[in-house]
Amino acid sequence: MIDISVVIPVLNEEKHIEDLLTSLYCNNNCSIEVFVCDAGSTDNTLSTIKKLTFPNLHIIHNTQKYVSFAFNKVFNQTRGKYIALLGAHAIYPEKYLDTAIHYLQNECDVVGGPLIQLGKNITGNAIAFAMSSKFGVGGTPFRTEKKKMLVDSVAFAVYKKEIFHKTGLLDESLLRNQDDELHYRMNAQGFQILMVPEMECSYYVRNSFKALFNQYFQYGLYKPLVFAKVKSGIKLRHIIPSVFVVYLLLVTLLSLAVGYIAYIPLCLYTGGILVNAFANTLPLTTKLLSIVAFLTLHISYGSGFILGLPRYLNAIKQSK
Asked: Residue 119 burial (CB < 10 Å; 0-12/13-18/19+)?
């Protein structure tokens, strides 16, 4: 009997995949099956997996590439009582799956852990710092908190498989934020999502500002569509970056109408960036780069959110 089914979407993960699979099979006592859903790797990912001799290890070719398609494609093939959707770029603690099963049996319907966000170079370190800051990401619990708590969403979650029969699977119209929308949907239906410190993972962030901008622009672009589907997920922190971007575009015109008062929000924001960037023990170069990281996070997400609003309006129109 299989206790837990693990779904891992991958693309060109030859540097990580063997260590990840070894840690899952060797560091947990529960019986597992793993579905590695490959989106068309051109490196040695597939050949590396084929050399491994772990039981119940399956390679699935995800020709539609995105996470939602991978998960939905294999769901009906899974045999576990529980199901996990894990990322290949994370490092999981020992007993990650065993711990998940314990909490799912006793306290919740979905469980995961907080993230330790890491960089692989100086820029990555600054990005990791900004993404771990409430000023940077608005208090997203799994990025900024370490305590046990019920949350709206959690990374690298493990689920009771049975709840999908009530909530449905991942929304394939969402190329980003699929797990957020799923979790908001689960919350809306009364299922409890728990974050526990014992399941804390290490996650490597993007290591360039260009990659960070693209990542958060995409998050912002699809977030309005998420809210069109599950309105209960809307929080003030989701809206503020787009308001800030609109403000930046209009501040000069506002100053013509109200004078220097128009620049007060900009001064407050600048002060917030400087305090958060320098009130720490990071090296000076990292402090300076974190300023750029904060700006990139806010402007990219806010710009994407604004451009995603037509999708929101269209989804609302179609639902009537």
From this structure: buried
pLDDT of 40 higher than 80: yes
Residue scoring higher pLDDT (18 or 139) = 18
Report residue 73 CA to chain centroid gap: 20
Beta bridge partners of 202: 91, 116
Which residue is listed with tokens 């809210």? 227
Which tokens in the block code for residue 79? 């045999």
35-44, 114-123, 205-214, 218-227, range with the lowest pLDDT: 218-227
Classify strands 57-61 and 32-38 as parallel, antiparallel or unpaired.
parallel
Query: Mean pLDDT for the chain?
Result: 91
The one-letter amino acid code at 58 reads: H
- CB-based contact 195:148 (threshold 8 Å): yes
Q: Is residue 232 over pLDDT 80?
A: no
Q: What pTM was computed for the model?
A: 0.85
